[in-house]
Amino acid sequence: MTGEPDRSRYHIAALAKGLQVLSLFDGVTLSLRTSDIAALTGIPMPTAFRIVSTLEDLGYLERRHDGTFQPGVKVLTLGSAAMRGSGLVQLSDRPLRLLADATGETVNLGVLVEDRVLYLARLRNADLVTANVHVGSTLPATYTSMGKLLLAHLPPDELDRRVTAASFAPGAGPNAVPDRAALLAQLDGIRRAGYAVQDQELAQGLRSVSVPVLGADGVPAAAVNVAVSALRRPLADLHGDILDRLRATAADITTRLRTR
């Protein structure tokens, strides 16, 4: 005997299946029918129906008008709590606040999820145009400075898998890259420079600059950016003092991650 508990004795199959269902909604898959859930998980249809009904009753799933299901408010609440409690977010809090105070601008922390950027922290200046972006939001990586920075450091095969024609959705800013070829040209420059700039690619009137936060392996684990109004800040501002302060902040967070 090793003295270790037999964890399988405490396994609750019904709970595991419920979590398996919730894990299907991964940011790419936004809604599913009960039949889809059964097919994707291998759970028998009657059992899938009961699990979905229970999750709906408890607020973890919501039924849409077309009969499909999407994550409910309870899931979003759990996700926000998890992000606020993550080690990366906690370690980044003070450096990000100091950066926001020093620049007077919006500061963001994000990670790459497939071909989108997930916002883990956001300290927003009141005049920024993207008022609808909040912690837990995702935006197309192809149009954001944090997204382009993180895409630039992916292995080529991983970049090929993540970035497809669907990654270039309509409705972006006037300077958005139109296709994969244009994006790849940008990524080459980003790798050489070590930082990424977005100039009204995500939205009209918005500019930002981003640098990496490095993990223990030296690979970017996240990105930090400063976002500004194009009406107040010329593009040159993102290459001067703001970039210097941003790099110092990312270096501070990187050090905190490695020494925690």
UniProtKB/TrEMBL annotation:
SMART domains: HTH_ICLR. Keywords: DNA-binding, Transcription, Transcription regulation. InterPro entries: GAF-like_dom_sf (IPR029016), HTH_MetabolicPath_Reg (IPR050707), Tscrpt_reg_IclR_C (IPR014757), Tscrpt_reg_IclR_N (IPR005471), WH-like_DNA-bd_sf (IPR036388), WH_DNA-bd_sf (IPR036390). Residues 12-73 form the HTH iclR-type domain. It holds the Pfam family IclR_C. One of its GO terms (molecular function) is DNA binding. GO terms for biological process: negative regulation of DNA-templated transcription. Residues 74-259 form the IclR-ED domain. SUPFAM superfamilies: GAF domain-like (SSF55781), Winged helix' DNA-binding domain (SSF46785). It comes from the Bacteria. This is IclR family transcriptional regulator. It comes from Actinomadura verrucosospora.
